[in-house]
Amino acid sequence: MKQAFLLTGEPGVGKTTLIRQALEHARIRAGGFFTEEIRAGGVRQGFRITTLDGQSAILAHTDFKSPYRVSKYGVDVTGLDSVGVTALKAAVRDRDLVVVDEIGKMELFSPSFKDTVLQALDGGKRVLGTIMFASHPVADDIKRHPNVAVVSVTRANREQVLSQIVSWLDAPVDGDIDDGRRET
């Protein structure tokens, strides 16, 4: 099996939920972070990163003034580095599984984030995460990384993908997984 299992797909299809569900079944020491929406009155205002050990920081918000912007959101690279990247580095050092939710435009503004993700992919630890669906030079390089299997999630295949993740978490890292790129 490949060392890294990255989910991609349209926003809202359930990628983060699948990772959370898989971690509930897994008997593996995991570290890293999730990205969650910040909503007020039913309207998305931004995004928060929350580590598996409970630390959090606001990654992006409509109220942030920042040179780093994605759509209407200002991105706080310092918060990402101090909380998210720190959690990834600790997971690479001390855990069996590194959780990266997500590898997206906002996160890729941080050189430290990019370096840490690449270290995780080359470091022998399993990496479970999400990666942006759209094309982006760095994300596309990560998708092509020899240690990475990319699986597209749709509403129709969520249960199948959950089974794949759980099986991957239970299997040794040495072969290949069905990454959805082959014809079946």
Q: Could you walk me through the main structural features you see in this protein, from its secondary elements to its overall organization?
A:
The chain is an alpha/beta fold. The protein has one domain (4-170): 3-Layer(aba) Sandwich (Rossmann fold). Helices cover 33% and strands 29% of the residues. The protein is built from five helices and nine strands; from the N terminus they run E-H-E-E-E-E-E-H-E-H-E-H-E-H. Strands 5-6-4-3-2-7-8-1-9 form a nine-stranded mixed beta sheet, sandwiched between helices. A hairpin with a 2-residue loop joins strand 2 and strand 3 (43-51). Helix 1 (15-25) packs across helix 5. The longest helix has 18 residues, at 77-94. It is globular and about 45 Å long.
